């Protein structure tokens, strides 16, 4: 794998994914990581000092105007090799409330961050992904060629929803899943793999202290699973260990 872009890498699963990719026997030649505030991303900055293949790009993903510059920065480094993997990880989850307490602002903010931003970033990265797909024509569908992984959640599964509530978060991830499916169809011709992934319930700021999985367990398995995925996974919804999930 030549290059990977992961969003939201200053903490939680994003930071864990960076470490998991670096633990691979052959880490990506270029690991582009995003965060909103580099000065506060101390652990990520420390990692980047130790590993010159880690690049830190500062962006608030709700600033769509910044995507062009982000793509230019990646393109200037990877040139004709493009981008092999876009990992849309950054996300938010407002407090879980029932319908009567649902706030318009939470709905708008969450849909923008969890759905609009990953779709628009995938659109912005498309030329880079297509370049990678072309440069790795001999490779089968998968991350060695070109792929988009959208970090979803089992809470976005309509079939698995038995508890209700969480309008903003559930709707944002269900919509992201719908987008994954469309991407997988639109990009099938270029053999760019598109998958929705549930990381498990993980102990992060979002997952809370009661979650059963720790970050290294989830992210190590995610990277292992993602590296093994191929054409049969395109347009599907899976969890960290490769188990298929219901839409
Ligand atoms: P955290 O809350 O620990 O981290 C979220 C990350 O997203 C942070 O880096 C945060 O940056 C970033 N982020 C949020 N909004 C923006 C924005 N507008 N622009 C740029 N970056 C942004 O969450 P997790 O690590 O737990 O979650 C990562 C992903 O996994 C999310 O998509 C989440 O929905 C999903 N997920 C997590 C589960 C869990 O149990 N933890 C379960 C299912 C899914 P900043 O520090 O600047 O806020």
Overview of the molecule:
There is one protein chain. The chain has 247 residues and is of the alpha/beta class. It is globular and about 50 Å long. α4 runs parallel beside α5. The protein has helices spanning 12-22, 42-50, 67-78, 104-135, 167-186, 215-228, and strands at residues 3-6, 30-35, 54-58, 85-88, 147-151, 193-198, 237-239. The model has no long low-confidence stretch (mean pLDDT 98). It has a seven-stranded parallel β-sheet with strand order 3-2-1-4-5-6-7, with helices on both faces. NADPH dihydro-nicotinamide-adenine-dinucleotide phosphate (NDP) binds next to α1. NADPH dihydro-nicotinamide-adenine-dinucleotide phosphate binds at residues 8, 10-14, 36, 60-62, 89-93, 113, 151, 153, 198-199, 201-202, 204-207, 211.
Features:
single chain; 247 residues; Rossmann fold; seven-stranded parallel sheet; 7 strands; binds NADPH dihydro-nicotinamide-adenine-dinucleotide phosphate
């Amino acid at each position: 794998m030549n290059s990977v872009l992961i969003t939201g890498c200053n903490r939680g699963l994003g930071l864990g994914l960076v470490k998991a990719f670096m633990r691979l026997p052959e880490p990506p030649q270029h690991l582009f990581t995003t965060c909103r505030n580099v000065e506060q991303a101390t652990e990520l900055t420390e990692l980047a000092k130790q590993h010159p293949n880690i690049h830190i790009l500062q962006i608030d993903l709700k600033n769509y105007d910044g995507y062009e510059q982000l793509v230019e920065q990646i393109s200037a480094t990877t040139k004709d090799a493009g981008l092999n993997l876009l990992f849309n990880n950054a996300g938010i989850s407002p407090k879980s409330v029932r319908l009567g307490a649902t706030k318009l602002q939470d709905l708008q903010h969450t849909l923008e961050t969890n759905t609009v931003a990953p779709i628009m970033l995938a659109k912005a990265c498309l030329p880079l992904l297509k370049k990678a797909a072309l440069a790795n024509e001999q490779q089968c569908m998968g991350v060695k060629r070109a792929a988009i992984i959208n970090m979803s959640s089992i809470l976005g599964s309509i079939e698995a929803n038995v508890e209700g509530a969480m309008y903003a978060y559930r709707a944002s991830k269900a919509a992201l899943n719908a987008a994954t499916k469309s991407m997988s169809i639109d990009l099938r011709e270029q053999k760019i793999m598109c998958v929705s992934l549930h990381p498990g319930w993980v102990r992060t700021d979002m997952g809370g202290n009661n979650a059963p999985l720790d970050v290294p367990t989830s992210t190590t398995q995610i990277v292992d699973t993602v590296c093994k995925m191929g054409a049969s996974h395109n347009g599907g919804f899976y969890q960290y260990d490769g188990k298929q999930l219901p839409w």
